[in-house]
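Notes from the 1:1 (GR / supervisor)

We went over the backlog. Supervisor wanted to see one worked example end to end before approving the batch request, so GR pasted a single chain during the call. The sequence is below; no edits were made to it. Supervisor asked that the structure be written out right there so they could see what the output format looks like.
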Amino acid sequence: MQDLTRAIPALFVLLWATGFIGARYAMPWAEPFTFLWVRFAITFGVLLLIIPLVKAKAIGPLNAMHAAIAGVLMHGVYLGGVFWAVRQGLPAGFAGLIVGLQPMLTAVIAGLFLGETVTRKHWLGLVVGLVGVATVLSPKFGSATDGVTVATLGAAIVAVIAMSVGTVWQKCFVATADLVTVTLWQYVGGWAVAFLIAMLFETGDFVLNGELVFAMVWLVFVLSLGAIFLLMILIREGEVARVASLFYLVPGVTALMAWVLFDETLSPIQLVGMAITTFGVALATRRGPRQSAPATMRASR
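Structure output shown during the call:
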């Protein structure tokens, strides 16, 4: 059982990285928020079927509200902002670098609101990890800057802030509640945001074809269920600043997947960047012998 627990971070990174591959298949065939509200609705339906099978417990209205708020931030605003920015032309390299700021931002927020101690070694690991992410993404920056606008950069930055705040919110208020029920209410919040924005600003275009169906099935079951459940376990069991450091590994794993699936180039500089990132994450996630996760606040059940 302990070996399985140790494998959760690596499995989470692997599954989370596939989300960018799924988005590549989906985005040509659906508008971002339209795709997301449909994805969240399907996920909600699957969770309704799962709850009686696993005998998930009710979490009470206050915890449900906090879970929905976390879902608004982690699913609706984060995914919606990133998907929209990329669809509007923000280069993947820029988007990836901005998203790479999340672990450092999360560490700051966790220190302020959860009382987590961020050591010098942790900060060094975060900085090294960010350098590694920039190195991995550097070949993708290219010379095209047409998509780098105030709107696209703003959307990506808001998305990163939302993910960081949502992660801390989850840890602060509902980390100890039933994971399945919490995830259900998270998707209620994420769906509400995506649906509202889609109705207000999108046309509802949705080209149903094999690529879109594959992307939807993959993102619902592998990302919205599998990866998110693993993330909730990691948040519950560890300090959120250390958990967030794992996101540094995602660009490198995604680059490897794109090399295998789409024959994208994988240069020596990217391999060096992956090594730097791995070293940075090792520094940032290593816990000293006397360190323990701080107590968290919990909403009343």
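Supervisor's comment: DSSP finds twelve helices and no strands in the chain.
Batch request approved.
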